Amino acid sequence: MEDPNLINYLENFVSGKRLQRFEEVLGWRTRYITVVMEDIYHLHNASAVIRSADIFGIQDVHIIERRFSDRLDKKIALGAQKWTNIYRYGTTKECIDNLRAKGYKIIATTPRSDASTLDQISVNQKMAFIFGAEKEGVSESAITAADEQIHIPMVGFTESLNVSVAAAIVLYQMTKKLHSSEHSWRLEEEEKATIRLDWIKKSIKNIDKILARYQEGV
Asked: Rounded distance, CA 32 to CA 59, Å?
C-alpha cells in the first residue's frame, strides 16, 4: 500500500490540472490487453508501438531483445515511455512463460490469410499480442507457442503492414471491443495508486532531493 502522507506531500509539487489528467487516464488504463515486441530493429517502430499502447490505454509493454537491445527512441515515443511499464526479456520463451503464468492468452500476428481476423477474437480472457521484427515477422518459436494467430486482411498490392501500423490497428479494434464488453478490464484501485505515484514522481524535477527532504522530516 502506498504511503498516503508521501502522496499528499508530492502532490504539492504537481499542478491540479495534471493530477486531474492522471485520474482521467487511469480510468481507461488496462492490463487485460498487453503488447509484446519481439526483436524490433528500427527505433522508430519500437517507439511508435509504445506510443500506441499509451494512446489506447495499455499499461504494460513487453520487449524481447534476443538480438537487438535498447530500441526505444524517446523523441518518437513522445514521452509515452514515462506512462507505460516496460518489461524486457532475453528470450521469447521467458516472456511467453511469464505472461501465460499470469493468465494471458498468447496471440501472434502473422501475414497468413488462414489465421483468425480481429473480428473473430474473443475478449473472454486476458490477451497478449506479439508483434515481430520488420522483415521476418514473429519468430517460429513464438508462432508455435501461441494459443492463436491473427492477421489483418489486405486487398492491395502491398502484402504487409509496418509493425507500428499493425499494432495500432490491433490495439484500437481490441480495446474498442473490450470497452463495450462486460468483462472487468479496468485497473484495481491499488494498481492505480501505484501507477499514479510513479507518474507523480516522474512529473517532478529533482525528485530525489525532494524525496530525501521528505524522509528527513518523517
From this structure: 9
